[in-house]
Amino acid sequence: MPATTGTVAGRPQPQTTAETAGGPFVRHAPDGRRAMYVDNQQFAGFMGRPMVSSPGWNKGYRLLVTSTTGGGVSGVISAGAGGVDAPFSLAQLVQMKDAFGTQLLTGPGWDILKAVPKYGGQFGLDGMRDPWNSPQNTPITAASGAFQFASYLPFEFAKGYGVISGANAALLPVLQINLAPTATLFSTPPSVLPTLSETVDADFYWLPNVPSEPPGIGTTEQWIFQPSNPTIPTQASTVIQLPRLGGYLTGLILDLRDSTGLRVDAYPARPKILVDGVPLIDSLFSTIQEDMAIATGIGSSAATTQTAAGTIPVARDTGILYISRKTSLSQRELGLLDTGEIFLSTNPGTQIEVAGYPWGTISNSPATLNAVVGQVVPSGALVRGLPEA
């Protein structure tokens, strides 16, 4: 019989087709994600395993914390600040540093793991601005202490801009989280404590297959939690000084807390925000909330029910005001789509103040106004426009 010969129906194709040289960085660097580590801890523990390399430029870290059912005698969630801010208050202190020790995100868990992704515009859009709206989340079960929550630690603040090198195994970012004791979340903890598991993944851009680099290598956006001075007695008429800043401000998260640490809406009826003594905003408190809704879609703290305009999916958190400087292209924040044209330029001598005549009623006086400020610290000149286009 004649020898049979096979025919090839089709040759295997490469997964990607190489782009021609030129064009923006994001054309040549596809999105990727890889595991950093999975850690098991207890309450009051320390989470700080070394990161591993990723073959490209890190955009941010995904964090998933799972508290696995304990049991025994039922617990009671605390009515204090730790219980109100739960489960994000499980992180007592979050420190995210680059390979050279520069603080990129530093502060309490609620502010860094919830407020920064929600208000900073670097996580999601619309309803997913708030990490608590993640489908991965499960509220605390007081009886057993079981819960789960997801969050995001962002580096990238415009598309392709602000990323951190992840390919050099000797120069990697550092994530350290001090976990809170059970008394922070529970006034009566479950008699059998749950076990905690933390999963960290990296979102990154693959190394390009043609010579191409992200814009402004070395530029970072830093979110640092700092208390302002002085403290605020109930119904006081006073001016509060924010900590000295530097760089280009993308957003200002104001977090007002009473002497017990609870967030309170004791803002003045007409707050004034001054830059170097000059009023930048002199507005009704309600109008500033309206500005927040226009820019971010985040409504008032009472706007979670059906209204004539429909349901507002993301509520403003009690005690929080957010001033956006990421609306260069529109009245609305567009996530990573921004030119940076209206970032507020500051230097270490710039003084930002918040004045109230008077401030509101504070049952547990005095209150402290905390500031979590997004500051872009550029490497060289700030890249403006749309470097990814």
Number of helical elements? 5
Query: Which architecture of the largest domain per CATH?
Result: Distorted Sandwich
CATH uppermost class of the largest domain: Mainly Beta
Proportion of β residues? Answer: 25-35%
- The shape is globular
CATH superfamily (homologous) name of the largest domain:
Viral coat protein p3
- From the N-terminal CA to the C-terminal CA, the straight-line distance is 63 Å
Number of domains: 2
| Main sheet properties | 9 strands, mixed
Number of strands: 23
Kindly name the structural category. Answer: mainly beta
Q: CATH topology of the largest domain, what is it called?
A: Adenovirus Type 2 Hexon, domain 4
Output the radius of gyration.
Answer: 23 Å
Calculate the mean pLDDT score and round it: 89
- How helix-rich are the residues, as a percent range? under 10%
H/E topology pattern: HEEEEHEEHEEEEHEEEEEEEHEEEEEE
Low-pLDDT segments, ≥5 res: 301-310
Structural account:
- With 389 residues, the chain is mostly beta strands.
- It has 2 domains: 25-206, Distorted Sandwich (Adenovirus Type 2 Hexon, domain 4); 220-377, Jelly Rolls (Sandwich).
- The protein has helices at 25-28, 81-84, 109-120, 182-185, 285-296, and strands at residues 31-41, 46-47, 56-68, 76-77, 91-97, 103-107, 138-141, 146-154, 164-165, 174-179, 186-188, 195-206, 220-227, 238-241, 247-257, 272-275, 278-282, 298-299, 314-315, 320-324, 344-346, 352-356, 368-377.
- The strands form 5 sheets. Strands 2, 5, 6, 10, 13, 15, 20, 21 and 23 form a 9-stranded mixed sheet that branches. Strands 1, 3, 7, 8, 9 and 12 form a 6-stranded antiparallel sheet that branches. It has a 4-stranded antiparallel sheet with strand order 14-22-16-17, with no helix packed on it.
- The longest helix is centred in the first third of the chain and has 12 residues, at 109-120.
